[in-house]
Every structure is written in structure tokens, then in C-alpha cells.
Design goal:
Length: 467
């Protein structure tokens, strides 16, 4: 939960809690509420506020994570009590960009309830009392300069941690860098993972990360031929791959897949991390890690990510409302588990729907106000069936006028490109094969190959059409 105001910037309004206390006192019905405890007490940090912050906020606002400040202790929360109440009332924090009135119900919504918002407001207006209660172990760790690095993992200590074999230095200026780093998995057998967490070593310089699986050693060969750590590749891993492990972008929150669903990592393969670096104006150093959480139950279905992409987009300078569309044609019966929208700084809104073979339309996701700082993955509470012949549609709008987020001063023509100053439109769809049961003899995990062949044919058709 990240506040956007400086501490002390919001002056408390005339205290509603005080007004209530005065009204009760004048009526003679009871004594004013007691901020130190007892009947009718104001909310306190230890009894009322800390559970809210731990459930909704400290996934980001803790040591070595994306939040710009920490909310792990009473003192850290007290200093920002009125700010927390303000952004909670505005519903700008915790961040959740999906339109709740569009599409299916979604998992992992961190939005505060009205009761939780009222608790934060009353606590701030009462002077942010600490209250009684034992100090949590996490508070003791949070106040120590020796806090263990494992605390940075959202889902706890992973079963397997992979990291870049050496640090990479990002220059202070220059063009964006797409660098691939080969990490031996050292897995002796095939495994399925239920969650993959990316931990950038330098969040200032890391724009996004993607991971690919290499069984043929192509990445190692390219690494040997390129001086310095890793090798440069703007088009994915730049070598033949047998799978992918998704990726990281600002605001993307990690979670476990449903029971019975996993992502395959073949034994003995290399993981290739493609890291997009954006110079910050000073020299930066990065050593990104990824944490793998292994599936604890038999895996029946393997999830893979298809996408609706439009790499022909062109955004005229000064135009505040450019509409761009993209499509994905479903090649076999699948079930969609979730979607991930992706745009850069000029995005305004994003909407995804699916037109089924019988002509009916299914709503999937609507982001009415795009925020490039919070590019989340949205998982459905119930699977969405997408039969073969379905078309997934993405409609997005971009604002290339003169506004604070536009990286170009003055605005200029912007097209598809890999840089943070370029633009993209991608709608990723996480799917599993309908009816697949990999625990049965003879079942194959071939969905990645099916989607790869479809993508390759699309590229070939487009190249032929241009010629």
C-alpha cells in the first residue's frame, strides 16, 4: 500500500471521533470514548490497525520491496496515519486497477472494506494510539539493520532460488538495455512450480524481466561470444527455447496457481533471464533473483501464456485518444485462468473480451485508468472456457499529448519498440488445455509447442503480406 502524499501533507478534518464523543457526553448517555482501551475505545494500532496493514499493505511496504517506505512497525505507521486514512478513503491504495463491474470475479483483490477504511480514519483522528499487545516478531525484524534477505520474498522462502551469476552494471545514461543472463537451474529432474517470484536487485534500473527455458545450450554459446556478463537480445532469449516462466513488471504481485496446475521446468535446463534496464542518470548495479515454489500436489494441467499483440501501433504526436486493437485466435479448447495487460507510459485504458464461436461475447477484464506502475496479473475466481475458434479482443487507448507521464517533451510520433520511451500493447492470457490430465499415461504437456507454432505461422504470414 503506497501513499502518494508526503507525511503531514493532509491536515485532519475536524475530528469525527471527537464530535461523537462530545455528543455522547452532552447527552449524558455515557462517558466519552477512551483512546487507551476499555468499552467504546478508539481503534489502536496493535488491536485494530496492524492486522489491516499486514494483510493489505506490507506485501509491498517492507524491507527490499516495491513500496517507497516501510509499514512494518508502529512508528512507521504512526508517522503516516493521516496519509494512510486519506489514500484508503480515496481508494487509490492498495492499488487495484480492475473495474469490478466488468467481467468475472477476480482473486486476490486487496481493496479495503468500508469498515477497514473507517478504522484507519478513526485511528488517525484519535492521534494514532499504539494500544497494548505483544510486539510481533516481524516488527522486531523490521527494526533491525540485520533483517534477513528472505523477508523480501512475498510468499516466504522459495524451494529453489536462482540468481544472476554476477552483477551487471547499468551506465548512467544512454539507450535502454536488453540483457540476457544464463542461469543453470541445476535441477536433476523435471519439476512443476506453483509460483515464481522475481526479485530485482535494483528496482530503479530494472524496467521488466522475462524468463525462458533453454535445453540446447544456445544461451551459453551467445554468452561466451558477448563480452561482459550475459548477452544482448531484444527479441526474447534470442535462441531456441522449450518454455517460459513469465516475468516481472512494476506492480505485478505473485501468487500460487490453483491446486493441480503448474509450470514445467525440465531437468537440466538453463533459465535465461532477459532484463530490460532503463538508465536512471547515475550508475546502477543489479543482480536479479527468482524464487521457485514447487507444486506440492500432482499436476494435472500445465499453464502457458498466449497473447493478443499489436506491434504495428503508431501514436501521432499530440493525439490524446488513439485507439489500438489486438486479437488472439484460440487454436484449441482451453480454459483461461487469468490475464495480464501490458502497456507503457502513454496507455490510458485497456479492455479485453472474447467472442465465442456461437457469437456470444464474454467480458474478461477492464482497466479504465491505466497505471504503468501497477501492471498486475488478474486471476479469475472461476475458469473461463474458450473453445477452439474463439477470438480474444483487446481494445486500448493511448494519450500522446503533452502530459506529465509522456517521456517526450514535446510529444513525437511513438511506435512499437522495446524501450521504456516506446510503446507496447499486449494482452497475455494464461490458459490450460481443457480436459488435460498429466497424471494419466500418454498425456503430453505440448501446449507451449502448439502456441509457439501458431505464433510462428502468424509472423510468417505477416512477413509474406509485407513483401
Amino acid at each position: 500500500m503506497r501513499t502518494r502524499r508526503q507525511a503531514g501533507a493532509v491536515r485532519p478534518a475536524p475530528s469525527a471521533a471527537l464530535a461523537l464523543a462530545c455528543a455522547v457526553f452532552l447527552s449524558g448517555a455515557a462517558d466519552p470514548p477512551d483512546p487507551t482501551g476499555g468499552a467504546g475505545a478508539f481503534p489502536t494500532y496493535r488491536r485494530d490497525v496492524r492486522p489491516i496493514l499486514q494483510a493489505r499493505c506490507t506485501t509491498c511496504h517492507r524491507k527490499d520491496n516495491v513500496g517507497p517506505f516501510r509499514l512494518e512497525t508502529y512508528e512507521q505507521a504512526r508517522k503516516r496515519a493521516h496519509d494512510l486514512a486519506g489514500v484508503a478513503a480515496e481508494r487509490s491504495m492498495p492499488p487495484w486497477k480492475a473495474n469490478p463491474r466488468f467481467g468475472p470475479a477476480l482473486k486476490h483483490d486487496p481493496s479495503l472494506t468500508e469498515s477497514e477504511i473507517a478504522t484507519l480514519r478513526a485511528w488517525a483522528e484519535a492521534g494514532a494510539p499504539e494500544g497494548d499487545g505483544a510486539v510481533d516478531v516481524t516488527e522486531t525484524v523490521a527494526t533491525s539493520s540485520e533483517a534477513p534477505s528472505t523477508g523480501a520474498w512475498t510468499l516466504g522462502e522459495p524451494d529453489v532460488v536462482l540468481e544472476m551469476t554476477e552483477e551487471f552494471t547499468v551506465p548512467a545514461s544512454g539507450s535502454d538495455i536488453y540483457r540476457c543472463f544464463v542461469i543453470p537451474s541445476r535441477l536433476s529432474r523435471d519439476v512443476y512450480v506453483s509460483a515464481i517470484e522475481y526479485l530485482p536487485g535494483n528496482r530503479k534500473a530494472v524496467h521488466h524481466v522475462m524468463a525462458f527455458l533453454d535445453q540446447e545450450g544456445g544461451g551459453r554459446e551467445r554468452d561466451k561470444a558477448d563480452p561482459g556478463p550475459g548477452y544482448t537480445s531484444y527479441s526474447g532469449a534470442g535462441v531456441r527455447i522449450v518454455g517460459e516462466l513469465g516475468g516481472y513488471a512494476a506492480g505485478n504481485q505473485v501468487s500460487h496457481l490453483p491446486n493441480g496446475v503448474g509450470r514445467l521446468i525440465p531437468g537440466g535446463c538453463d533459465v535465461i533471464l532477459q532484463v530490460h534496464y532503463h538508465p536512471t542518470g547515475k550508475v546502477e548495479v543489479d543482480r536479479t533473483r527468482i524464487g521457485l515454489h514447487l507444486c506440492r500436489r500432482p499436476v494435472e494441467q500445465s499453464i502457458h501464456w498466449a497473447n493478443a499483440t499489436n506491434d504495428k501501433l503508431r501514436l501521432p504526436a499530440g493525439d490524446p485518444n488513439v485507439e489500438v486493437k489486438a486479437e488472439w485466435h484460440v487454436p484449441l479448447d482451453v480454459e483461461a485462468l487469468g490475464v495480464t495487460p501490458h502497456m507503457h507510459q502513454l496507455g490510458r485504458d485497456f479492455r479485453m473480451t472474447a467472442t465465442l464461436p456461437d457469437g456470444t461475447t464474454r467480458e474478461l477484464l477492464d482497466i479504465p485508468r491505466w497505471d504503468p506502475s501497477w501492471q498486475n496479473t488478474y486471476y479469475f475466481k472461476e475458469r473461463i472456457e474458450l473453445p477452439r475458434g474463439t477470438t480474444v479482443h483487446v481494445v486500448a487507448h493511448f494519450d500522446n499529448s503533452d502530459h506529465p507521464l509522456n517521456p517526450h517533451k514535446p510529444p513525437r510520433l511513438v511506435s512499437w519498440g522495446p524501450g521504456a520511451d516506446d510503446e507496447m500493447l499486449v494482452g497475455y492470457v494464461g490458459v490450460v488445455k481443457k480436459g488435460q490430465d498429466l497424471t494419466r499415461r500418454g498425456q503430453r504437456d505440448d501446449l507451449f509447442q502448439i502456441l509457439s507454432r501458431q505464433y510462428f505461422r502468424k509472423v510468417v504470414r505477416e512477413r509474406f503480406a509485407r513483401r
